[in-house]
Amino acid sequence: MATILGPTAINERNFTVRSTKCKALGLLWDTEAGFVSIPPDKIEKALGRVSNLINSVSTSKTAILETNGSLRHVASCSTPARAFLQALQSTASTFPRFRPQRLSAQALDDFHWFRSVLKYPGYFNQIPVGDLASVAVPTSDVFMDTSGEGLCVLEPTWKENIRQRFAELEAVELSINIREMRSAVLATLHWGPFWAGSSNTKNRVHVTLHIGNTSAVSWTNCRTSRHPDAQMNNRLLSPAGFQYNTSFSATHIPGKVMADAGSRAPRTHNI
């Protein structure tokens, strides 16, 4: 450019100094350490807006859209939050434009979830970029399987297992997809404190859940589903990750096809 247009074509005052720490897209980046953080003022602003909506008798569509806008940084840095934000965006799109009204019970649950998450601001400080790119190396592996009678989860690191026998009504009403996902939730709630306490570094623990059902794997990774039982399990799984400073990913057990075949069988209570 300087060769063609001359030395005055480049205004050096418009260029910033090269640095490994910068602010871009509303986030704080540390390229040398490989971390990204959400500014504290954005977390406080989002928490305040969420609390105002929860405590309001009625609210407007504009207030919901403004709150969702404050939560976009949380969803950018947290996989679990994306599904909840999608649900809130759907709520905003169907909300009356000129007539304030009460939020639905499901929307209030979603905002309560965000408020509980935002009370842990340290979770959004120095987030490894590997977690955002889904290339984090697992520090623990958990293996699980489910049958028509019960479930079993193995934790090789601690040499422990969880076994649960289903009640007769659960065995009839719950699909194999939900039963497989319950294994992941139980493992997270039971071993979460141990995983958090075993970390000798400031980096969060990354746990890979080996599940034999593709639907449960997808629900666990994406944290979204139209199945009400799967939504409940996601609401249990996601806050546990924040509380214990642990990230989770799910992978399908190679060669495990029987659970998938069972999930596709005609079933009254299976969605």
From TrEMBL:
Q: Which InterPro entries match?
A: Hepadnavirus_pol/RT
Looking at the record's lineage, which domain of life comes first?
Eukaryota
Q: What is this protein called?
A: Uncharacterized protein
